Amino acid sequence: MPRPPIYSSGMDSGPRHTPLPSPIHIVGGGLAGSEAAWQLAERGHSVVLHEMRPLKTTEAHKTDRLAELVCSNTFKSTEVTNAHGLLKAEMRLLGSIVLQAADEARIPAGTALAVDRDIFSAGVHDRVVGHPRITVERGELAALPSPGIIATGPLTSSALADEIARSLGIASLAFYDAIAPVISAESIDMDVAFRASRYDKETMAGESGAYLNCAMNKEQYEAFIDALTAADQFTAHEFDKVPYFEGCMPVEEMARRGRESLRFGPLKPVGIEDPKSQRRPYAVVQLRREDRAGRMWNLVGFQTRLKIPEQQRVFRTIPALAGAEFLRFGSIHRNSYVNSPASLTPHLSLRTDPRVLFAGQLTGVEGYTESTATGLLAAINLDRMLRGADPVIPPPTTMLGALYRYLREADPAHFQPMNANFGLLEELPIVPRDKAKKREQYASRALDEMRAWIDTNALAGAPALK
Predict the structure, then answer these.
(1) Is the peptide bond before 23 cis (omega within 30 degrees of 0)?
(2) Does some domain include residue 461?
(3) pTM exceeds 0.85
(4) Residue 443 Cα distances to 113, 123, 159, 398, 437, angstroms
(5) Which of helix, strand or coil describes residue 216?
(6) Position 9 in a domain
(7) CA pseudo-torsion sign 297, 300, 306, 310
(8) Looking at the 3D structure of the chain, how many domains does it have?
(9) Tens digits of residue pLDDT in 363-404
């Protein structure tokens, strides 16, 4: 089969009633795999979704549910003038089932799409398991099925990782991802903490602010930095060999880069006023709710590999958290991803078999929304190829298309995972000087072109075959 185009003008939508191979196998029941399974089933395919949990567990998962969130509980911004919000808007046009479940599980977090993680995963799980054309099989699979989608995520089992490396002829890369602690609401000293959002932007009806804030003066900040940089952490020989992804840098690693690093990172005080002093704090620790009822709050930006006793000791030096009850301690686990520009086609398949596609964080995208989006597009393209049409990719003026262009064009020698961001998009013909107007124009163009791409390629509706 010839190498597929970077993106298609889409005149060929392919035959709609070609006999379909049965079934399609999807490996991995996370966000990308669950989205892909649903999309293919809705297009009339019989799908077998392979999930190794609970027969084989991982370092991060706690349940056997599909689409379990193991890190943050937020899908980030919903505003189209934010790169993550724009990607969501594009995915909604394509009918993302994961975003539908996220909307139903949404909890107050201002403009961010934060979810109650239990309600969310149950929503996706019940939809997928209850679909008449989807069968969920439990157990580890160490093969690359064709036709199929590999969406095993950053915690791919060793056996399957070895098979991927053998099939690609190139070793997969790896980094370490850190998880932030979660605190019980009842243990937070509300005489010290206060509600506020930066610049009062992220508010919801009935709430003065979407975040809890723990203000620090200079003396408190310096004491916290001293405790954090001296704390004992989990160590292993491999940790020093593999780089962290900047978006998940452990808080203690950031602190070691310089005493002011955190004040210009997750503890930056800009846009926040302490109601007690009516002044901007020297530094501020923000907590974001984890559940709809507001019983659990996580420390924003506090991914860590500190040992558990050290987490308790160090984080209880934060104002308002002296009596903190930890519902989940921070942890660290191994993440793997494929060197996509070196080894995959533009639509993220094996070069030797275009019907074996990869999706999710395994491809080198970073983030819940980005991972889900690749699962959605993988399903669209596998459906098209099985019906005799070419795979398609949105133009690089869209956020989804721009992500795929990055995965194709990035330097293989220095390939690193990537979040959605406006720097990936095709530049505007005339660039406004005003940053807000520039993003508005990016978003307007992207959504117009995504709608046109969907219409041209007859992708709307995901019609199931009778």
Answers:
(1) yes
(2) no
(3) no
(4) 18, 29, 42, 8, 10
(5) strand
(6) no
(7) negative
(8) 2
(9) 999 899 999 999 999 999 999 999 999 999 999 999 999 999
